[in-house]
């Protein structure tokens, strides 16, 4: 536990040896916080989170950004949002099976398969 010592009107926080502080991440988009206790094996980052410009974004907010980016081009229909989400998921997890990606994007495996082939042909996704 950190302790405080007082010397001539100054306070200094010192850390007791062997104590680890808990790991914590807060999303700048939705302000959700993930914490791991001091004794837990915390990962380098939570699953699906990414750091952009020094700020953490959760997976939900990253998906929302991908969809917003697609709809900013003027295509605001369900098809363009689904396409953006499938493309995001394929780039995030290129080795995941089509069925897993389809569940994440709420679409058919055929749509995922077709978009995966298009991305590979365009050189935007590596072949497995």
How would you describe this structure to a colleague?
It is a single chain. The strands form 3 sheets. This protein has a two-stranded antiparallel ribbon. It has a two-stranded antiparallel sheet with strand order 3-4. Strands 5-6 form a two-stranded antiparallel ribbon. The chain is built from 4 helices and 6 strands, in the order E-E-E-E-E-E-H-H-H-H. It folds into 2 domains: 20-57, no CATH class; 59-128. The chain is of the alpha+beta class. Helices cover 38% and strands 19% of the residues.
Number of strands: 6
CA radius of gyration is 21 Å
Give the amount of beta strand, in percent: 15-25%
Instruction: Please give the largest β-sheet.
Output: 2 strands, antiparallel
The span between the termini is 48 Å
How many domains is the backbone divided into? Answer: 2
Write out the strand line-up for the largest beta sheet, numbering strands in chain order. 1-2
User: What is the 3D form?
Assistant: globular
User: What string, H for helix and E for strand, traces the elements in order?
Assistant: EEEEEEHHHH
Structural class: alpha+beta
Stretches where pLDDT is under 50 for at least 5 consecutive residues are 1-17
Task: Count up the helices.
Answer: 4
The averaged pLDDT comes out at 84
Fraction of helical residues? 25-40%
């Amino acid at each position: 536990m950190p302790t405080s010592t007082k010397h001539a009107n100054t306070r200094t926080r010192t850390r007791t040896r062997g104590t680890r502080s808990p790991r914590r991440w807060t999303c700048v988009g939705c302000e959700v916080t993930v914490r791991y206790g001091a004794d837990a094996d915390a990962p380098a980052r939570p699953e699906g989170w990414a750091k952009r410009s020094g700020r953490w974004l959760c997976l939900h907010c990253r998906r929302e950004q991908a969809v917003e980016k697609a709809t900013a081009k003027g295509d605001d229909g369900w098809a363009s949002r689904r396409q953006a989400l499938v493309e995001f998921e394929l780039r995030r997890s290129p080795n995941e099976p089509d069925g897993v990606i389809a569940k994440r994007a709420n679409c058919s495996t055929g749509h995922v398969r077709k978009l995966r082939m298009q991305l590979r042909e365009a050189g935007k996704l590596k072949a497995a």
